[in-house]
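User: Can you recover a sequence for this backbone? Please restate the input before giving your answer.

Assistant: Of course. Working from this structure:
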């Protein structure tokens, strides 16, 4: 059962403040400029989404306390709507204050140009809602194949150019249907990979269609089959042993503190996998994983959590492949740097990291959690091409 987290209450507090702020602006600034009929329309347009947030607020806070269970499908969308609308209205309000306080007074312009600027500023209040709409209905399921050259120290010539596919963070749930996963599986198979890795978070919460997800990923085809590791949501769903066992029935090997040696010609590659390594147990990262290393061949680690990379590198893993961050889901470029919430968790947020001749690739994955939104962090299927380094 999910425990109410202090962040849930902080988020609720921010939501109440934001909604109150919006109604104050409506009363003080918008009302005097509109006719009564126009104002009623605007007021209801703001009130209806506020009311629609209530069920999400209730399930977010009350369900863990009372144990009253709402069907997963409806709960996910109710909570998703609450998060999305609260996020968009907070962004909108912040933008409004920013424009009113700093941009408009600073602009030395003629009165007519000022009126135009004010209209542009008002229109820009809609920008966060437009961005969220785009992120929910378009970018969220616009899967793309990302191709990356992966330098692997000690790679045998027979492995040069070998193609490995990776999919991660499927989060099959009301936010990502089986038919959407099927599309991702087809796209992965079209890459004709030598190996395919699935790096955790098959579903989001108990009640999500785990069996159908396993059946669907069993359609993944690769010369040397499908290997994987498990994510934190397999822990939340108490499904680690189940996924390992059921996937094995279809010939997929989820490596739980185990390794497999893969051969090609005269070369070999050692692939090891570990269960989710919790952030709060950083000092225990990869405890016991040294026994999975093999001499005389490159060692690849599948770890859902990318934060283990420095520890993995120190132990002797040449490559770490991870997911978990979803590339932040909502990523904004500020001053040439990408900023998103995942940076609070780890410095390894998305893409390729090279340190001391070791490599780590963190994929954005294909699913979403919390808010059914992706902005600037498109869902991706990885094609990793191995290169000798
Ligand atoms: Fe995830």
């Amino acid at each position: 059962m999910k425990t109410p987290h202090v962040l849930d209450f902080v988020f609720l507090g921010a939501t109440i403040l934001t909604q109150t702020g919006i109604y104050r602006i409506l009363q003080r600034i918008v009302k005097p400029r509109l006719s009564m009929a126009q104002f009623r329309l605007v007021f209801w347009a703001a009130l209806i989404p506020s009311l629609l947030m209530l069920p999400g607020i209730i399930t977010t806070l009350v369900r863990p306390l009372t144990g009253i269970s709402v069907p997963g499908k409806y709960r996910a969308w109710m909570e998703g709507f609450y998060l999305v609308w609260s996020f968009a209205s907070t962004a909108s309000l912040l933008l409004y204050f920013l424009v009113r306080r700093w941009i408009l007074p600073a602009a030395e312009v003629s009165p007519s140009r000022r009126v135009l600027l004010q209209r542009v500023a008002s229109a820009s209040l809609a920008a966060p809602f437009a961005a969220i709409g785009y992120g929910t209905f378009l970018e969220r399921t616009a899967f793309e194949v990302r191709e990356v050259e992966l330098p692997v120290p000690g790679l045998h010539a027979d492995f040069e150019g070998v193609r490995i596919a990776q999919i991660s963070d499927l989060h099959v749930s009301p936010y990502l249907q089986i038919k959407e996963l099927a599309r991702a599986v087809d796209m992965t198979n079209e890459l004709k990979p030598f190996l395919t890795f699935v790096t955790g978070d098959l579903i989001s919460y108990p009640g999500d269609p785990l069996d159908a997800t396993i059946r669907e990923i069993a359609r993944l085809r690769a010369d040397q089959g499908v290997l994987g590791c498990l994510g934190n949501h397999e822990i939340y769903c108490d499904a680690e042993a189940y996924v390992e066992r059921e996937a094995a029935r279809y010939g997929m090997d989820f490596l739980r503190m185990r390794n497999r040696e893969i051969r090609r010609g005269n070369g070999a590659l050692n692939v090891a996998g570990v269960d989710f390594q919790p952030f709060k147990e950083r000092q225990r990262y990869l405890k016991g994983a040294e026994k999975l290393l093999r001499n005389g061949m490159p060692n690849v680690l599948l770890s859902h959590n990318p934060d283990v990379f420095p520890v993995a590198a120190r132990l002797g893993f040449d490559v770490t492949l991870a997911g978990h961050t979803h590339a932040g889901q909502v990523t904004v470029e500020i001053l040439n740097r990408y900023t998103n919430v995942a940076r609070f968790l780890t410095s390894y947020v998305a893409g390729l990291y090279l340190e001391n001749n070791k490599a780590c690739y963190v994929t954005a994955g294909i699913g979403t959690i919390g808010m059914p939104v992706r902005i600037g962090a498109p869902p991706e299927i990885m094609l990793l091409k191995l290169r000798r380094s």
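That completes the design. The CA atoms of residues 182 and 241 lie 24 Å apart.
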